[in-house]
Structure to design on (572 residues):
């Protein structure tokens, strides 16, 4: 992986007079030169609106935009390219499903089952949906290690369950959830499953057909791609039956003041001029990931997490939050006597970027009785020296507050 | 102060011009001490003004009790809550500073404190009014931490105005 670090220009800088150590990858990853180039090349040479013009630039823009859809379809092994809907990100993908599928399928008393480790983006849209439909939200709890309490599942997943929303990889804890088994159990009671892959997609190979998942969302910016773009994957049969989410250009066939007819998939869900440059950059990021290979990336990051976990366990006064057996790329912790925000500022002064806060997962914080945690999260370009720099900075913080 | 990092609102970038960065500018010993041993911590049962403060972005929670006399002089003040060293030290120092002040004097102090932590870097703090509170001047070099220092002040202002709302820093 060492060679790939050189491909990320932003990493080669000093912050606060120290070499940057970027360990906030769960918030967003840095971008390799090939992604920056793809976005820049598009604006320099091919910028035009898609699906509209007959001129050369529009045809080039359209061709690249649609080629990106195929790249992403193949990366996740979706059955059809029209099952890949470009959205602003995972959050918009979830809102689309909640509004479109949710409003047409949920009745009062129906249940939506979430887990105790969901990101706010996979909680709030469902709460809003429950308020509008009279459906009821249920929550699969998490144990002291930050793993799902699978024993509690049989009581919670019943014929009333219409949808299970589950995060693949927890951004706050690092837990990898057993989504294959959850999907199987949900399907056994007739429930649909939405998997939030915002955190997982850059860290492990995902085969949507093998998983048989109904809906899957992710964001490009956590996969070395641009911000403001992501995908909703949905099984074609489900997407076909769903009403449009937003109205506008590109999602229609005909419009008159009496009535409009809607375009077919995927365009039915892509109203307005999309983030064309973002989509092209997203495909470049996916190509970059494929070139390196997710198996190698996962192995490298597992080594980093292991190295970090061992140092954390030796560090007196440090408590890991999230110690599930299956984990990836996230080290969440608290230090006795030092608030996470102070930790964040102090390690930042050593050039080390980590996140401090509730990680948009307040229920996880409540579960562990904490206002916040500090979180280091890893990417393919991190190395053991980055982790050593983190623990050196943490040691400094501890001594400062002693 | 001037030899420390310069932050510009436009670039959001520290260390402009390669200035020397010293964490002790933010975490001065007084702050570390007030965080470890906060003064006026706890509930003031006889208080006649109360308010809660909340910083949803970082989860800081604060409760402030203030006792004023008939003339509107602050007799006593206490706080309770959870937060970072900056927010705890700020509340500790604030409750010390406000005792014996009139509500009008508190407002003067509020304005001087707010100016100190939010004004341009080269603006001088009003040391005459602020006294010991100037140890928090370093906060303005850390834009993401200004709210930590100022939440307790907004909470006290809300308490003294007898507003029923939860104080925020916006």
């Amino acid at each position: 992986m060492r060679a790939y670090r050189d491909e990320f220009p932003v990493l080669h800088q000093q912050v606060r007079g120290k070499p940057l150590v970027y360990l906030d990858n769960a918030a967003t990853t840095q971008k390799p030169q090939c992604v920056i180039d793809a976005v820049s090349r598009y604006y320099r040479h091919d910028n035009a609106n898609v699906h509209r013009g007959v001129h050369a630039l529009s045809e080039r823009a359209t061709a690249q935009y649609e080629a990106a859809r195929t790249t992403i379809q193949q990366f996740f092994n979706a059955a059809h390219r029209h099952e890949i809907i470009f959205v602003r990100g995972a959050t918009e993908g979830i809102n689309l499903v909640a509004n479109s599928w949710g409003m047409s399928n949920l009745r009062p008393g129906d249940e939506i089952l979430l887990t105790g480790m969901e990101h706010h983006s996979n909680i709030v849209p469902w709460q809003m949906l429950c308020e509008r439909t009279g459906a009821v939200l249920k929550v699969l709890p998490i144990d002291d290690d930050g793993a799902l309490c699978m024993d509690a599942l049989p009581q919670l997943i019943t014929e009333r369950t219409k949808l299970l929303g589950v995060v693949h990889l927890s951004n706050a804890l690092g837990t990898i959830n057993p989504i294959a088994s959850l999907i199987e159990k949900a399907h056994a009671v007739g429930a649909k499953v939405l998997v939030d892959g915002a955190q997982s997609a850059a860290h492990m190979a995902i085969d949507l057909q093998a998983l048989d998942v109904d809906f899957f969302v992710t964001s490009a910016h956590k996969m070395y791609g641009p911000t403001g773009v992501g995908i909703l994957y949905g099984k074609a049969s489900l997407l076909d039956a769903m009403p449009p989410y937003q109205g506008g250009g590109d999602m229609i066939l005909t419009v008159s003041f009496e009535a409009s007819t809607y375009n077919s998939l995927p365009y039915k869900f892509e109203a307005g001029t999309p983030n064309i440059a973002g989509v092209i950059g997203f495909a470049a990021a996916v190509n970059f990931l494929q070139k390196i290979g997710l198996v190698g990336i996962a192995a490298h990051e597992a080594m980093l997490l292991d190295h970090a976990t061992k140092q954390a366990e030796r560090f007196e006064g440090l408590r890991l939050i999230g110690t599930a057996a299956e984990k990836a790329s996230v080290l969440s912790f608290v230090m006795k006597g030092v608030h996470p925000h102070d930790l964040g500022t102090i390690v930042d002064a050593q050039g080390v970027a980590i996140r401090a806060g509730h990680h948009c997962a307040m229920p996880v914080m409540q579960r562990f009785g904490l206002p916040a945690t500090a979180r280091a999260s890893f990417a393919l370009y991190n190395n053991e020296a980055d982790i050593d720099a983190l623990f050196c900075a943490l040691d400094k913080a501890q001594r400062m507050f002693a | 102060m001037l030899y420390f990092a310069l932050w510009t609102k436009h670039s959001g970038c520290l260390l402009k011009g390669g200035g020397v960065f010293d964490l002790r500018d933010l975490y001065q010993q007084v702050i570390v001490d007030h965080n470890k041993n906060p003064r006026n911590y706890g509930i003031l049962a006889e208080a006649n003004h109360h308010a809660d403060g909340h910083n949803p972005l970082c989860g800081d929670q604060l409760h402030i009790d203030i006792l004023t006399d008939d003339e509107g002089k602050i007799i006593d003040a206490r706080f309770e809550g959870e937060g970072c060293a900056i927010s705890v030290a700020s509340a500790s120092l604030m409750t010390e500073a406000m005792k014996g002040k009139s509500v009008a004097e508190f407002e003067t102090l509020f304005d001087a404190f707010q100016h100190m932590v939010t004004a341009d870097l080269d603006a001088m703090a009003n040391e005459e009014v602020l006294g010991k509170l100037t140890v928090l001047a370093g906060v303005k070099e850390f834009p993401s931490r200004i709210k930590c220092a100022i939440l307790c002040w907004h909470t006290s202002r809300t308490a003294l105005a007898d507003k029923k709302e939860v104080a925020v820093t916006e």
Observations:
- The first strand of chain A starts at residue 14 and ends at 15.
